[in-house]
Amino acid sequence: MGRALRAYASIFSQPDLPRDQPGCGYYRKMDKLLSGKIAVVTGGTRGIGRAIVDRLLAEGASVAFCGRSAEGVQKAATGSQAYGEAADISKPEDVRRFFQSVDTKFGGMDILINNAGIGIFRSVAELTPEDWRRTLDLNLSGVFYCSKEALARFKRRGGGYIINISSLAAKNAFAGAAAYNASKFGLAGFSEAMMLDHRYDNVRVSDIMPGSVNTEFAANPSDADWKIAPEDVAQVVIDLLRMPPRTLVSRVEMRPAKPPRKS
Question: What is the CATH architecture assignment of 34-254?
Fold first, then answer.
């Protein structure tokens, strides 16, 4: 095993502790899966992104996150192991500035969670060119900009992990979502190609594809207990990071267990 591979294996390979002991659970202090690791989360101020930030911190990671507004970042700031900055990841200059700040604060990174996204739900006839550009720029180009910055840093650290928060809209088109579907179908292809490009650089790439999640993101948000909780998506992120380096889970599809029956 070469030096780079040994270094990469040490990043994510930690023994599982028994879950039947008193006090065991997702947030048990003695089970710090990601102690000493540095994670970056885009769109980390609310919803799925905020749940992922909280869970990574609970597992011992240092976490840098970004959001589009300085006010949202300030409200989401939590603890000395977290760093937040306002950045629009559809703009390459914002992405470069944010990742440079991560270098200054933490000295590098091991994990990238591409979570930031937007949904504009209109028919093709009603979509404006600006709607189209904004959706593709944020949901697809932004992932490229952030991944490119992360890959340069992973090279210096001997490897890393990129997890893209996608959607079942990456495989199931639906009316009123042409721009959103296009961005997520594109993300699926981009993720697989990036994995093939960099798997022998000790970089793993996974897609998480949730269905209906109980956040404000949906076209018609509602407080529905039947939907996936943001914390459920965060749990899958941790499950992926817990996998041994020899194994890659390329895609995870998530669905509500009991959605309302169609009449």
Answer: 3-Layer(aba) Sandwich (3.40)
